[in-house]
Known about the structure:
The complex is a heterodimer of chains A (about 400) and B (about 250).
Chain A: H1 2-15, E1 67-72, E2 78-82, H2 99-107, E3 111-116, E4 121-147, E5 152-173, E6 178-187, E7 192-201, E8 206-213, E9 218-227, E10 233-242, E11 247-256, E12 262-271, E13 277-286, E14 294-303, E15 309-318, E16 325-333, H3 337-344, H4 350-369, H5 372-388, H6 390-394
Parallel strand pairs in A: 3-4, 4-5, 5-6, 5-7, 6-8, 7-9, 8-10, 9-11, 10-12, 11-13, 12-14, 13-15, 14-16
Antiparallel strand pairs in A: 1-4, 2-3
Helix pairs in contact in A: 3-4, 4-5
Chain B: E1 4-15, E2 18-30, E3 35-39, H1 46-54, E4 59-68, E5 71-72, H2 78-83, E6 86-89, E7 96-100, H3 101-113, H4 119-132, E8 143-144, H5 150-164, E9 168-172, H6 180-194, E10 200-205, E11 218-223, E12 226-231, H7 233-242, H8 245-251
Parallel strand pairs in B: 3-10, 3-11, 6-9, 9-10
Antiparallel strand pairs in B: 1-2, 1-4, 4-5, 7-8, 11-12
Helix pairs in contact in B: 4-5, 5-6
Amino acid sequence: MTVTESTLDSIKDSLELEKVESHLHPEGSFLVEDHVVPTGREEIWRFTPLGRLKGLHQDVAFADGACKVEVEAADGVTVTTVAPDDAVRGSSGLVPTDRVSARAWASVSGATVVRIPTDTVVEGATIVRHHGTGTETPGAGHAVIVAEKFSKSTVVLAFDGSAVVADNIEIVVEDGAELTVVSLQDWADDAVHLSTQHANVGRDATLKHVSVSFGGDVVRHDLSAEYSGPGGSVEALGLYFADAGQHIEHRLFVDHTAPKTKSHVVYKGALQGDGAHTVWIGNVLIRKVAEGIETYEENRNLVLTDGCQADSVPNLEIETGEIEGAGHASATGRFDDEQLFYLRSRGIPDAEARRLVVHGFFYDLIRKIDVPELEAKLTETVEVELSKNISALTGNTQNGAPTA
Amino acid sequence: MSTLEIKDLKVSVETEDGPKEILKGVTLTIGDNETHAIMGPNGSGKSTLAYSIAGHPKYTITGGSVTLDGEDLLGMTVDERARAGLFLAMQYPVEVPGVSVANFLRTAKTAIDGEAPKLRHWVKDVNSALEKMDLDPSFSQRSVNEGFSGGEKKRHEMAQLALLDPKVAILDETDSGLDIDALKIVSEGINSFRGGEDKGVLLITHYTRILRYVKPDHVHVFVDGRVAESGGPELAEELEANGYDRFTKAAV
Ligand SMILES: Nc1ncnc2c1ncn2[C@@H]1O[C@H](COP(=O)(O)OP(=O)(O)OP(=O)(O)O)[C@@H](O)[C@H]1O
Ligand SMILES: [Mg+2]
């Protein structure tokens, strides 16, 4: 059958991927000295407030103990700590492409390995909690999540407290496995977290990656995904809420390295308060070998008050004409006056109407995340974030009528 | 008691060439248990009248007054007007993604009554209000108006009217876009509302056909931002036969 033949050809091709002349694919290196200290003019750093990174991008020394780690492993899942030289490190194909990632790689004293054995269908989520212990000494982290063949499971990486952290997270989804990874950043206001996350998705494997960011002074997450076989699927969901002075940045890069693969990216954020800044960069590269793929990426930002900035840059590079579908959408807007008017014309006070609209904005996404352990917590956190600033919200009515 | 008194209401909207006057002095009193029909050609300002009374931010009141039982509506916020007993069924109901009808109705009812409705009765009330409007109970789990057909949106407005039970309802072309069965259902909804104690209805319409099912006490012909003529139900019949020509010509 020709279909099979052409698929086989493509797989052969994909084993020796051509080099791509694209800024999307910088040459990586494990050596720190290969990455010069960024100045802020570089494409990948131009949105990030380097001055607030506490030296993570320069030479500041790392030490252990920045976070206290607690593990709740679900039945059937093993969570271990291995030495830095363990071969599992790098098994996702992660090669640092910036100085922070390379420094974290070189500095860790160990790595956390979450392993879901072959064929194991896991009930409930495995949760690795990181409690920040203070911002005095920066910490470096490394975690590898390996979902072996045909396993099915959910892993949550949760962060709270105060800390300055740079980490590398590797995600390996072997053939036919189904894995949900949630990265939940509920940091205190002074935390700085730069995370490099790389996923390798096997043949017919499915990864759902969820990033949720609420707290922190600077939170920047770079997520990249590549496919090691055809039929793999990545769903990347993100939810963030930036308050006054907060910088939350997400950079995604989906590298369609195999045919018949799928990627679906939806990130939604709300911003409120002076100096709240969010950045979303959604890069998708469809290589020549990646025929018959489908990709869609979407970023929506809801600006709740004056003085916020949402940068949103979707970017699609296509090197084959043979694709099933490719699209992107990006929208940043304020409250819809017609929606607020409708709700208020039913007696619902202004603040409550705004709260309803924001809930509605996030609701679809929260439903898609579909991790029962988190759903209530997420809804509640959205509520808390909103109530924090409800006075600012009500102060924002622009109609002529006086505010209650 | 429920009296909506509109006196010499003047309203303008912002346009690129500065403010444009749309309502040029509207005077109208809807007394206790009265149903008034306002009929007028496209663009005559019917929706502007409805929205201005409800407090839509797009419209600027430049003169006149509107009171409900003597209370100054124009000094109130949009939601205060609703809590004072005003309801506006919109010509184009707005979609609110992610907010379920159930949540919306409960939040609105709580705001209007000042306390949360008793759960046991409430679910029953919602289902029966939907059912009376020939809407499946599953509608309560859907997002407000999202993906509703035109007719479903209008019937959803009427279900809200029944549940929120205001003093005065302004119905802006609730009848348009309905087939004859839906028109009867909506008319029953209006009649059941005005069968309640001390209710007023301001029925804005383009066509006379709804007046066969909802008999008005007064009919006003609205042309070019003001009431051109008022009369009884016989005025509607004249409009049915002769159209707006007589009035639009007079206005020019
Ligand atoms: N922003 C605006 N700029 C200019 N003119 C406007 C603006 N908004 C409304 N108008 C005008 O105001 C007039 C009244 O509009 P309105 O919607 O109240 O009419 P209507 O009687 O409800 O019409 P219909 O029967 O079509 O519903 C129209 O001529 C409309 O074009
Ligand atoms: Mg109209």
